[in-house]
Amino acid sequence: MSTNRVIIFDTTLRDGEQSPGASMTRDEKLRIARQLEKMRVDVIEAGFAIASPGDFLAVKAIADSIKDSTVCSLSRALDADIDRAGEALANANSGRIHTFIATSPIHMKYKLQMTPDQVVENAVRAVKRARNLIDDVEFSLEDASRSELDFMCRIIEAVIDAGARTINIPDTVGYAVPQEYGNTIAQLIQRIPNADKAIFSVHCHNDLGLAVANSLSAIAAGARQVECTINGLGERAGNAALEEIVMALRTRQDVMGLETNIDTTQIVPASRLVSSITGFPVQPNKAIVGANAFAHESGIHQDGVLKHRETYEIMTAESVGWNTNRMVLGKLSGRNAFRSRLEELGTQFASEAELNEAFARFKELADKKSEIFDDDLVALVSDTRASAGHEKYRLSSLSVTSQTGETPVAQVVLSVAGEEAQAQSSGGGPVDAALKAIEAIVDSGSNLQLYSVNAITSGTDSQGEVTVRLEKGGRIVNGLGADTDIIVASAKAYIHALNMLDANIQKAHPQV
Ligand code: KIV
Ligand code: ZN
């Protein structure tokens, strides 16, 4: 591989999923992984195999089906973690085990309660064990940006000797600043005698809003792998955003002199897919993938762009996949057209029954909405799948009366584990009344942390996509629902969240 090539390592499905409320089902992860493969991401970190049986199966499903990207599983520097990762990756065309241990004084003393010698010993043992299972092994020094340089040199030299091919230097707590971080990378590469036997990688969190700047500084200093997520999803303030790094490298090739293998026209579709699956909306002014990223409002700018596009535009909207939201299907479209368009969008149906259910919903939607766009299809499949699987609660019917000057009243009929139950409630607005009526039946004891509505496409006949975030006993879940009627979409999203709380899936967190 050319020394000018930067490896793009996407961790949306692992670090991104660690965002409170962003947990995804196996099928949702597989859909995102297919889109990442289509975008030509080099490495997909599919999850943390030992975290839960669900995580293991998700990593395995992705490893079994992705052929063009390397599939990676995270593991702590523990034998059981490494073995589980190896098991999940057994059928991968190209697999990687990513093992890590903390190296900062504060983490070693308080979290690990290990001496530096013990940390080196564990790291070397973990890398050797992983190398017995797979050729491609990455080692991360957790909290590297607060670790001592001499100690980092020592442990990195040892793990490269033990067989690590990629050395990742994470800014775990988002503490670094660009010049300092770039300098650390340059020093490591210069001082470690066997540094040329490994690729140096960076992984930055965005607590100070510097994740992309720090990543670019590290790349300029010699790092050749960057770990990032779609839409910057991730723990706390998130990870470095893939779209920003890739487009910065491409747009400023004149300064950086580097390239990636990414098909940039797949960026916006990937952003929309991740947003619709996790329920995390993209802010309108977000670089590259925000709705306003290419919109010129001021008269002076509009005039300039019309006269000569490059007066105010440094890249084209088409180059990152905007304007690909084609009107593809309508009322008369058949099942085959429906299936094949969804396949192009990265969705494979698990069975004919699932296809039939989604197609029936598509027909219902086409009765209400004359033009069906790609985004409608993505939302429709997310909504169909949200209501499949674990389903204790199901919406049977909803009626709401709302009139100026009157208090809105909702009547809800739910099927609860197969038994019909109904309730009526008033509320501050029709959505409030509907959700209160559902609560009157379920009595979930959960706290509503977020309620958001997005119009999926433009036009007043657009579907509303609703996200409801509920918290109960420290567990946070996101429910999604889409419908042309936003009260129905809200009820669906609330019921989806209740079903997820009821499923009570627990998983381990890698840093704990
Ligand atoms: O932020 C971090 O340090 C991580 C490691 C596990 C790579 O996510
Ligand atoms: Zn991280």
UniProtKB/TrEMBL annotation:
Which reaction equation describes what this protein catalyses? 3-methyl-2-oxobutanoate + acetyl-CoA + H2O = (2S)-2-isopropylmalate + CoA + H(+)
Q: Quick check: keyword Acyltransferase in the entry?
A: yes
Record CDD domains: DRE_TIM_IPMS
Q: Which PROSITE patterns match?
A: AIPM_HOMOCIT_SYNTH_1 (PS00815), AIPM_HOMOCIT_SYNTH_2 (PS00816), PYR_CT (PS50991)
**Keyword Manganese found:** yes
Q: Under which EC number(s) is this enzyme classified?
A: 2.3.3.13
Q: Name one Pfam family in it.
A: HCS_D2
What the entry lists under InterPro entries is as follows:
2-IPM_HCS-like, 2-isopropylmalate_synth_dimer, AIPM/Hcit_synth_CS, Aldolase_TIM, LeuA/HCS_post-cat, LeuA_allosteric_dom_sf, LeuA_bact_synth, PYR_CT
Q: Please explain the role this protein plays, according to its UniProt record.
A: Catalyzes the condensation of the acetyl group of acetyl-CoA with 3-methyl-2-oxobutanoate (2-ketoisovalerate) to form 3-carboxy-3-hydroxy-4-methylpentanoate (2-isopropylmalate).
Q: What is the protein's name according to its record? A: 2-isopropylmalate synthase
Q: Which organism is it from?
A: Nitrincola tapanii
Upper classification of the source organism reads: Bacteria, Pseudomonadati, Pseudomonadota, Gammaproteobacteria, Oceanospirillales
